[in-house]
Design goal:
The protein has 371 residues and is mainly β. Among the domains are: 21-86, no CATH class; 87-155, Thrombin, subunit H; 275-371, Beta Barrel (Lipocalin), CATH 2.40.128.630. Helices cover 4% and strands 52% of the residues. It has one helix at 2-14, and strands at residues 24-26, 29-31, 38-41, 48-53, 60-65, 72-76, 81-86, 90-93, 96-100, 106-111, 124-127, 130-135, 138-143, 149-154, 161-163, 166-171, 174-179, 185-190, 201-203, 206-211, 222-227, 232-236, 240-246, 249-254, 257-262, 267-272, 279-285, 288-294, 302-308, 314-320, 332-339, 342-349, 352-359, 365-370. The strands form nine sheets. It has a four-stranded antiparallel β-sheet with strand order 4-5-6-7, with no helix packed on it. A four-stranded antiparallel β-sheet has the order 11-12-13-14, with no helix packed on it. A four-stranded antiparallel β-sheet has the order 15-16-17-18, with no helix packed on it. Strand 12 (130-135) and strand 13 form a beta hairpin. The relative contact order is 0.07. Mean pLDDT is 84; it is low at 1-18.
Length: 371
């Protein structure tokens, strides 16, 4: 009897525990952040690039494939499975627009009113039952079901962005809004662009349009928050890389500062941040802002801070150490996930990657694994 009990105990002890922690992704690998163990490899690593979290869908990642057809995979880390194979849904080549299905197979082709552009394929977006594409002289829309041309709108055709029932575009001096229903222009805003504007971002109930000079000494940067009616709520003389709506204003990350600003432009608090073209990002949870900064072009530390959103107080500031690769040619992408009382920091580099776990309370380093 005693021997049977002991045998049962030995069996119970020898069964490995299975972590229920949702994996993070490092390139094409799913990593358990509680142990650092690789729980699944999706494909050959040489064929795929970095994994990026899908905004608004916790546990979903898109992994771009380094293939000519541009296919990518969408991964659900919660179930450790590939959800679907996706492809660019619309493409242009010369004056031809093509709609592709999820297997990158052509559904239909249509002729654009003019060439697709002189700087490579032009932009093509899908929304409200339309495929909208830029051509050299303007923008055209096609019915997604049939490929029938619905409308043509000459004029500004760069930096296309779908927003509610509007199509936004920006080029040189202006950002314009067209109605998706018929392509008619409903408003335009002057944007002071000395160089080509950056892609348009939607931040809550505002569109954010930014102009950034190619050379820092030109000092002509600007960022505009524009509402859906075309009214400029706020104009800043700096490039806002990221922004989050919060109460009666925004929290912004720029090349100069982290700051909380009111809609009237009043700065409620700020912290200096001088990094030209570095990686800057952050996430908000409750009244805490977690910012993280790194260098995209060399093997750098990832510097992380927790800031009290209401007061601007820096609660803690730590650095995840670099890999210290023995050469200067390098690229690095970073994302951070909040998991209860822990922060999971993932760095994906061209010569190695790491996952590091920090304490939310004080920034203390809890675990680290290198791949």
């Amino acid at each position: 009897m005693v021997a049977a009990i002991l045998a049962a105990a030995v069996v119970a002890i020898s069964v490995p525990s299975i972590s229920r922690e949702r994996p993070v992704m490092v390139n094409n690998k799913l990593i358990d952040p509680s142990s650092g163990r690789c729980v699944r490899v999706l494909h050959e690593a040489s064929e795929y690039g970095t994994a990026e979290p899908v905004p608004g869908l916790p546990g979903r990642f898109e992994v771009e494939a380094e293939r000519r057809d541009g296919t990518s995979i969408l991964v659900d880390a919660s179930t450790r499975s590939v959800v679907e194979v996706t492809a660019p849904t619309a493409r242009t080549h010369d004056d031809v627009l093509s709609l592709l299905n999820s297997r990158a197979q052509q559904v239909w082709q249509a002729t654009l009113p003019g060439p697709g552009g002189t700087h490579g394929p032009s932009e093509a977006l899908i929304g409200r039952g339309l495929v909208v594409a830029a051509y050299e002289g303007g923008v055209a829309a096609y019915a997604i079901e049939s490929g029938r041309r619905v409308w043509v709108s000459p004029g500004i055709n760069d930096r296309l962005c779908l927003w509610r029932d509007l199509l936004l575009a920006a080029q040189e001096r202006f950002m314009v809004a067209r109605r998706l229903s018929d392509g008619s222009e409903t408003w335009r805003v002057e944007i002071w662009a000395a160089d080509e504007p950056e892609p348009i971002k939607i931040v809550g109930d505002h569109a954010l349009i930014r102009t950034e000079p190619h050379l820092p000494e030109k000092n002509t940067s600007s960022s505009l928050f524009v509402d859906v009616h075309g009214h400029v709520t706020l104009r800043l003389n700096e490039v806002v890389y990221r922004a989050w709506p919060w109460e009666d204003g925004w929290v912004i990350l720029t090349g100069k500062r982290f700051a909380r600003i009111h809609r009237d432009g009043t700065t409620l608090w700020e912290h200096e941040e001088k990094r030209w073209r570095a990686g800057l990002d952050g996430l908000i949870h409750g009244e805490a802002l977690y910012t993280y900064a790194w260098e995209r072009r060399y093997d750098s530390a990832v510097r992380i801070s927790r800031i009290n959103m209401r007061t601007g107080e820096i609660v803690w500031n730590v650095a995840c150490e670099p890999l210290r690769v023995p050469h200067s040619r390098y690229s690095q992408d970073v994302y951070v996930e909040l998991r209860g009382d822990k922060l999971i920091v993932v760095s994906q580099g061209s010569s190695g990657s790491f996952v590091e776990v920090l304490s939310v309370k004080d920034g203390r380093h809890l675990d680290r694994w290198r791949y």
